[in-house]
Amino acid sequence: MANDKLAVLIDADNAQAACLPELLSEVARYGTATVKRAYGDWTTPNLKAWKETLHKHAVQPVQQFRYTQGKNATDSALIIDAMDLLYTGHLHGFCLVSSDSDFTRLATRLRESGAAVYGFGEKKTPEPFVAACDKFIYTEILRPESIAVAAQQPLAAEGGGVIMAAPAAPVSAPAKALRVSLSQAIESSAKENGWAAMGAVGAMMQKIDPAFDARNFGYPKFGALVRAQSFAEVKEIPTGDGSTSALYVRLR
Q1: How far apart are CA 147 and CA 127, in angstroms?
Q2: pTM of the full predicted structure?
Q3: pLDDT averaged over the chain?
Q4: Do residues 72 and 115 both lie within one domain?
Q5: How does DSSP assign 6-73, residue by residue?
Q6: 51 lies in the same domain as 117
Q7: Tens-place pLDDT, residues 98-118
């Protein structure tokens, strides 16, 4: 995945300039941003905050005038470019940065052609757009202050000690929904002995809910989130020469 070529297409009218550095760092987890473009009418004062940060991070601003008051021509320009890149850009995936449900069909079409689609938007993003992506990341969890709050409160491990930051207030599904989806993922990934590889469970959770992310619940990693659940049991098995280990989980 680190070598995948990605196009980052930003709807500047429906995204926050302040989180661009963290957003690009998140994109780097899934591949290399070979195309970086931001769309908007740069003659309007409401996009002023974007100008400096675009230059700093080598994001190409794409000018799109508003031909009619109340109509958003930016969406059409982004969609046209995305389809051009799909057939000519030799890309593996697309990062669509917007909280606008108008991009739902675009995400679906890109996936139908075999491209991976990563969505980035605020918690207000409509569910259809979230579901249309392979993975959707809420930009609130990318902001430095959200990480700092979660890191202030330690969580005691079984038998003493501290293993990770305590969870902040959930920003997506409630605890009951998490239990249902996580239990389903463990059961679907488990072998005959009831144990499932942690990586397989994480992949299944992503299929169940594209917006699932441990950071939505205040945890930096998926394994830490699973360890904190009373209904799940986690074991660690050394591999190779003992310098590395594999995590497995089962329902209690």
Answers
A1: 25
A2: 0.75
A3: 83
A4: yes
A5: EEEEEEGGGS-GGGHHHHHHHHTTT-EEEEEEEEE-TTSGGGHHHHHHHHHTTPEEEE---SSTT--H
A6: yes
A7: 999 999 999 999 999 999 999
Is residue 147 a part of any domain in this protein? no
pLDDT in tens, 118-144: 999 999 999 999 999 999 999 998 875
Q: Are residues 36 and 66 in the same domain?
A: yes
pLDDT digits (tens, 9 = 90+) for 28-73: 989 999 999 999 988 888 888 888 889 889 999 998 877 655 446 7
Residues 10 and 131 in one domain: yes
* Interacting residues of 121 by C-beta distance below 8 A, sequence separation 6+: 14, 15, 97, 98, 99, 100, 129, 130, 136, 138, 139
Q: Please identify, among 142, 167, 184, the residue that sits at the C-terminal boundary of a domain.
A: 142
If asked whether residues 179 and 214 sit together in one domain, one would say: yes
Q: Specify the pLDDT at position 164.
A: 39
> How many structural domains does the chain have?
2
The answer to whether residue 148 is domain-embedded is no
Structural domain including 230 reads: 153-251
Residue 130: name the closest of 99, 157, 160, 161 by CA: 99
Q: Which two tokens stand for residue 244?
A: 């590395």
CATH of the domain at 99: 3.40.50.1010
- Classify residue 231 as left (phi > 0), alpha (psi -120 to 50) or beta: alpha
